[in-house]
């Protein structure tokens, strides 16, 4: 089973533009869960490595997420034991902008009222203060965000293969910050074939895509 063509465009857009995701893995047989914040890149069906295209020659569209990790990590051991994983992506862009604005506001000295009338206006709860505007925008931003939980099957790519170099290059091109995770002899490039999705919208409605 592959990730369906009917995935909403905003989910695909989020996959293409985000830099980080949360990766959930689970060990076997203990079933101990683990969550990691990961750099990644999304590989659309038309850009997958040629061998993966051949596997999907029957018409099955294959969507991948590519990540890099050290082989002596808990997440890698979990994947080796249990390739079934989940990833969470979330639209943090608006919230980040608001956080930066809030920080800027907190570092800006509050001017003294120039007059009694100005002071009275500032105390008026109906007065459109900067803080009130910020809170209103924050509420709106929370409503506009969405998140998607994607399930898939993870596989470490053979480090001596052309496929390894192909996906490593794609990861670094999309996210140069991931370079620190691709250095050394102990690096693993992991590809996750997406299989299903659960999407929550701004009103907490949930849609499933298999």
UniProtKB/TrEMBL annotation:
Disordered: annotated segments: 103-125
SUPFAM superfamilies, per database record: FMN-binding split barrel (SSF50475)
Coiled coil (residue ranges): none
Gene Ontology, cellular component aspect: cytoplasm; nucleus
Pyridoxamine 5'-phosphate oxidase N-terminal domain location: 7-167
Gene3D superfamilies: Electron Transport, Fmn-binding Protein, Chain A (2.30.110.10)
Designated name of the protein: KLTH0A00990p
Organism name: Lachancea thermotolerans (strain ATCC 56472 / CBS 6340 / NRRL Y-8284) (Yeast)
């Amino acid at each position: 089973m592959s990730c369906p063509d009917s995935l909403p465009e905003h989910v695909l857009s989020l996959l293409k533009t985000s830099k980080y995701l949360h990766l959930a893995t689970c060990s076997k047989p203990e079933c101990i869960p683990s969550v990691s914040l990961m750099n990644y890149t999304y590989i659309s069906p038309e850009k997958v490595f040629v061998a993966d295209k051949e596997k999907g020659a029957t018409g099955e569209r294959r969507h991948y997420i590519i990540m890099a990790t050290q082989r002596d990590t808990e997440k890698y051991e979990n994947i080796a034991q249990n390739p079934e994983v989940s990833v969470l992506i979330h639209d943090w862009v608006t919230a980040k902008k608001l956080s930066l604005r809030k920080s800027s506001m907190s570092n800006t000295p509050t001017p003294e009222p120039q007059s009694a009338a100005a002071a009275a206006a500032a105390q008026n709860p109906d007065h459109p203060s900067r803080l009130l505007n910020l809170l209103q925008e924050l509420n709106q931003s929370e409503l506009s965000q969405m998140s998607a939980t994607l399930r898939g099957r993870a596989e470490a790519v053979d480090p001596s293969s052309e496929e390894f170099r192909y996906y490593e290059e794609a990861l670094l091109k999309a996210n140069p910050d991931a370079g620190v995770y691709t250095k050394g002899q102990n690096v693993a490039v992991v590809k996750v074939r997406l299989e299903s999705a659960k999407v929550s919208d701004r009103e907490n409605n949930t849609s499933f895509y298999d």
